[in-house]
Amino acid sequence: MEHIYNEKKKGAPVFVLLHGTGGTENDLVPLAELLNPEYNILSVRGNVQENGMNRYFKRHGEGQYDWEDLEFRGNELYDFITEKANEHEFKLEDVVFVGFSNGSNIAIQMMLQQPDKFKKAALFAPLYPADIEEKQDFSDAEVFLSLGKGDPIVPESESERVINLFKERGADVTTAWVNGHSLTQEVATEARNWLNN
Q1: Which residue among 55, 79, 106, 197 is least enclosed by CB atoms within 10 Å?
Q2: How far apart, in whole angstroms, are the C-alpha atoms of residue 35 and residue 81?
C-alpha cells in the first residue's frame, strides 16, 4: 500500500493516519504534527478507487457500505500495519489512529476486528451505520470523536450511534461537535489537548 513512514523518535507512539474519500497519505500529516510533533507517523493511502478517488473500502452509495469489502479491507489494512510494525519495530498497542471520514470508518472496523490491539483513536466525522451484536471489550480504549451538527453526510442520529458503539463497549469517550462534515482548527486543538492531557 502507498504510504509514508516518518520516524521522529524510536519507541514513541505512532500515528496511523487515515484520510477521507479522495485524499492521499499527505492530507493528515499537518494534523499529526499539530497533535504531537514527537510521535512517529505511518500514513496510508486507501487502495480502493471510487470515480478516481482514493478510499479504504467500497460502498454502494452515500452511507451504504459494502460490508463484505469493509471486512476484507479492514483485515488487509491490519495486516499491512502489522507488517510495518515488525519492520519499524513498534507495538500495535502504541498506535494512535487519526482518521477523517472514510479513514475514521476503517479505523472503527479495525478496532472492532482487533479489540485487544488498538487502544487509542482520534476520529473525525465518523460513520458506522450498523448495529453490532458482538460486545467487544474497549475498556482499555480511549477515543476522541469529532462529530458534525448539520453534517450532510452523517446524520446526527448516526453520530450518536458511533458514540454509543464505543460507550457500550466500555471505552473512555471524549466528544466534540463541529458544524458540518469538517475538521476545523478548533477541534484539532481540542484533540491535541485530549491526546496530551
Answers
A1: 197
A2: 21
Residue 118 — pLDDT band, cuts 50, 70, 90? very high
Which 3-state string (H, E, C) describes 108-135? HHHHHHCCCCCCEEEEECCCCCCCCCCC
Contacts of 98 (CB under 8 A, 6+ apart): 15, 16, 17, 18, 28, 31, 32, 35, 121, 122, 123
Q: Where are the beta strands (DSSP E) in 59-165?
A: 59-61, 64-65, 95-100, 120-124, 142-149
- DSSP H helix total and E strand total for the chain: 5, 11
Which CB contacts under 8 angstroms, 24+ apart, belong to 128-134?
Answer: 128/158, 128/161, 128/162, 128/165, 129/63, 129/64, 129/65, 129/158, 129/161, 130/65, 130/67, 131/161, 132/165
CA pair distance 11, 88, nearest whole angstrom: 10
Q: What is the pLDDT of residues 146-178, one digit of tens each?
A: 999 999 999 999 999 999 999 999 999 999 999
Q: Write the pLDDT tens digit of every residue in 179-197.
A: 999 999 999 999 999 999 9
Catalytic center residues = 101, 151, 181
Q: Which three cell numbers stand for residue 144?
A: 476522541
- Please determine, for residue 62, whether its predicted confidence score (pLDDT) is greater than 90: no
Sequence-ordered list of residues with C-beta below 8 angstroms from that of 86, at least 6 positions apart, any chain: none
